[in-house]
Every structure is written in structure tokens, then in C-alpha cells.
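Objective 1b. Sequence-to-structure analysis of Aminotransferase.
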Amino acid sequence: MTDRHHLLVHGGTFACVGDGGDISGVRGSGSPDGLFVRDARHLSRWQLTADGAVPESLTPVADGDTARCVLVPRGGRQEPPAYTIFREQAVGESAFVESLRLTSNRPVPTTVRIAVTADADFTDQFELRSDHRTYTKAGAHRSRQVRDDGVEFHYRRGDWTSRTTVTAEPAPDGVEETGTGARRLVWSLDLAPHGTAELALRVAARPHGVDREPPVPASPTAAGDQLHALEGEFVEGVAFPTGWPELAAACARGLADLAALQVPAKGPDGEELRVPAGGAPWFLALLGRDALLTSLFALPYRPSLAAATLPALAAAQATETGRDAVAQPGKIVHEVRHGELAHFGQVPYGRYYGSVDATPLFLVLLGAYVERTGDTAMARRLEPHARAAIGWMLDHGGLTSCGYLVYRADQGGLANQNWKDSPGAICSADGSRTHGPVLAAGAQGYAYDALRRTAQLARAVWGDEVYAALLEQAAGDLRDRFQRDFWMRDREFPALALDGEGRQVDALASDAGHLLWSGLLDKEYGEAVGRRLLEPDFFSGWGVRTLAAGQPAYHPLSYHRGSVWPHDNALIALGLSRYGLHDEARTVANALIDAAMTTGHRLPEVLAGYDRATCPEPVPYPHACARESRSAAAPLALLTAVGGV
């Protein structure tokens, strides 16, 4: 992350704090500063002063599940600090907790005036993105109410209400106005000679749509213990490779991150579920594609993720065509948001269906889950949803009319609706963008796999031989068409996409590796593609680039035009293994694990595409999610691909 922010995550709650543990609420920074729950900022200021001044950091906050720092009053060499402040912070579900321990460094009594300035602006997370958009909030009203033990902040706009409660033990001596809407909690603490005093502060967030008060942990230690117990449950019982300790460490780190990145969702019968979020800080929400790929990567080791993701996405499946035509019957949701702007329709992401590939991936996961676990009850329960998903692929999705899955740019939503969803990501080798209908290559591979796996379910579980045969025929026809229409004979490589006229979008892109994972290419083509992906223009030494270097479209710091994505490489490694290219799969795995070793065994969302020969450490992409579910699960996919040997 940029701007020296440190991320604390627990379920649907995250906080970004600075080196000294403060929250400044400054907009336009590289990460959203504050405490966030369900897309709303429940703390926008949290600033500590001692004797009227901001203390100096002796030991700044380090990355971890708990934020700890050591602070002293500012002074000089001739005037050593009179006292030291040990600050510790953590998050729980809808909660933020802090402990302050002040220790006197003097042999005489000392009095310290401590103040914590707090505010909650309840800003929607979409307002904090650096896209210069503004949103009207007619009738919005904020208020504050002083309590005996702290202060409470309220927000209302129409039927939308939120609340943040700040309490302290001992209670503050006073709560002061600041002239800005923030409130300042103040204490006068008497320290005995070399004595100690402690303060405990607790923040409870009550977001809109949540009826119960959150259980606030008693202390940062208690919050940390809760999270560590959850992480332990995820890691326990997984057989890590003994011959490759670095891969084992990356798998363990990834599972621990997945434990923290579980957000609440509901199933078809209203049952409470926990599913993988997209990532923090920007995507701590249910994203269909992300949750599906994460669950697929983790399936051999933590099938419980798939067991929650499948019914959660089934419950959110579209049943009718929306006004914007992005939602269509049978389509699997792309993104579910709970924020104020989504509630009032000012952003389209409350339930947003702008994804061409979440629907086939839903079917791929369902088939893989049943094959792996033998849970035929899940297949029977979700049969109507699976058939509806197939119906969308054949009808609205374009398989019948166009021969391929197709999408069009969504005005106000996403221009591209495959995994490379940034503007301009689907482009020709010269960098020119594609306009009109887009037939993305990777999505066709997912569709092929979805048809085949659903045919197996129809035959083995649903007892519908006719339907199974129909799907198998559709899969075979798709495979034949694809190799005829997408294969670029002069480059011996598949096109990134076709446009609406059937013309090849000729950028050399990593999406070809997804076709290996799906098994769409014949063996000869697949082997040629797999070896091509390991040539120097594609392979940076830290992974396979999204676009091969040397093309005018390539940029090493572009989100999708030359960067290296761990989850993309995990799919490539699985595909290489499928086609018998085991040495190549291990090369990709080695590169990613080496990258993870430089960042505490954690893989980020995305890395820059610079070559390892000139950059002996991976260069971070400047706006990447610090923790992302697909990247957290990527080492598990690598373990599957290479067998840990």
C-alpha cells in the first residue's frame, strides 16, 4: 500500500492507520484512510495528542493483524522523553479497539494530558476513489451525542441510518468540541515515579441494515486472539509440502489471509454464510468471479469455501432482466455492495451483473466441488440455478446466436466484463481499443468447461441423459469453432478476443493460459501456447505478464497491459500441468513463491511487469489491494499444479 498506511482486516471490517496509529481522513491518498464497515467509513479521524502535540514514533506500526507502535513526546537529545506511550490497535467484526499504556521515565510524579480526536463522516467508499466523481446527498444529516463514557456519532439520509459509538475506560474527563464536527476526548493522567497508566478505547460501528449491536472485543489482544483462532482453523489439517518450505509458508500465509477475508452473505433459504471477499481495502465485498476462483484454488484443501460460495451466488442469481439489461435471467452476480450510494442507486453495484465469466465459473465450481467432495445434495439443491446459468449462456450470453459468450460495454458500469475489466484492457497489439461487442478468449474456455462439467452432473446426479448429450454437443462445437476463429496462424497463438465483426484482437496476452486450464485447446496447440508463455517477452522472472513485452500496448505499470497477476499465473500453472508441461509449471510456481518470500510470504493482488534481471526484487503495482482472496489462494493452486515437489 502507498502513503504508509497499515491495513487491519477482520471479516467485513477493515481499518487503515498511519505509522503512529492515527487516522487523518485525508482524501485522495493511495488507500482509504479510516475504519470501514459495509462500504461506509465509521471513523474518519482518530488522532492522538499528548500534552497538546502529536507524539513522535520511536517504533512505527508494522504490518500485521495488530497495529503496535511506541510513541514519545517530541524533544531533543538534551531533554529525554518524560514518558513513553505504547499504543496497540486491532479490529473485530464492526469494531475497532485500542489500548494506550503510558509509562513514566522520571523519578518524580508526572501529569500527562492525553487527547483523542474522533470523528465519523460515514463517507461511502466509492466517494474516496481517485476518479474525481462527486455524489449529491440531499437531506443527509450528521449529529453527535456526548455520553458519560465517550461520544456517539449518527448519520441519517432518508431511510438510511448509521451509527458509531466511541467509549473509553476510564471515562474521559471531558468531551470537547473542535469546531469541525469532530469531538476530542481528554484525560489528565497522573503517573507515579516510573509508574504506568492505561486507557482502553472501543469503537462500535452500527452500519445500515444491521439490527444488532456488535460484540466489541475487550482489547486488541482479545481481538487478535479471535482472529488467530480463526486463522488456525483454516490452516489446521492442510498437508503442506515438506520438500518446499517456501511454498508451504506461502500456503499457510494465504490460508490465514483467507480466514480474515471472509464476509457475510446469505444463501437461497436465508441461511447465514461466510464467503471470500474480493480483497482489501477496495473490494471487501462479495465479487462473483473472485469468490469462485478463490474457492476453486482452495477446493482440494478447504472445500468449505466452495460450499458457502455456491449457495451465496445462487441466492444472488438474476431472475429477470434489469432496466439496464446487465442483469438477465440466470446470470451470476459480479458484485454485491451494501453502501449508501448503492442503496440509493447512485452507483450500480448494489447487485451488479456486469461479468461475462462469473456464470460459467459458477458451473465450473459446482461441477468441480461435487466431483471432489461427492456432495450430490448440493448438485440437486442447485440444479435449478445451474440450469438457469446454462440457459443464460446459451441465450442472453450469446452461445446460440453468436457462437460465443459476448459482452458489451456498460455505460455507468464496466467497459470490459471479463477478468481484465479495466478500460482499454482488451486491445490490439498496437494498443488500439476494441469497441462494440467483445468475445473474450478466456471466457470461451470457461464456457467450454462449464458445459462439460454440467453435462456430467446432468448424467450422474440429475438423471437427464438428453440434457447431458445436448451440453456435450454444445461443448464440442464451441471447441471446434474456437480453434478455427481465434487461432492466429501467423503467430501460432490465440487472439485475446474477437470483435463484433469476428475480427481477431491480436494482442499476445496471458489469457491464453486460461485456455490451458479449461482444456479448450487441442494438445498440439496447448503445448505450443504453454511454451510460448515462458519466453522472455511474456515471462518476467516473477511471473507471466498479462501482455507480452515488445508490443506497443505493453506497459509494465498498467493494470492489465503488462503487469503480473498471481491468480492469473496460478491458472496458467494449473493449465501447464494439465497439458503435461510440468517443468514450465514449476518455473511459474518458483517465480511466484520467490516473489512471495520478499513480502512475508504474502502475494499481492498484482505486481509490475519489470524483468527480474534488472529488478532483483519485485516492483509493487502502486494501487494494488494489499490482501486479495485470489492471490491468497494462489499458492494452493500452485501446490496442486506442482505437487509440492
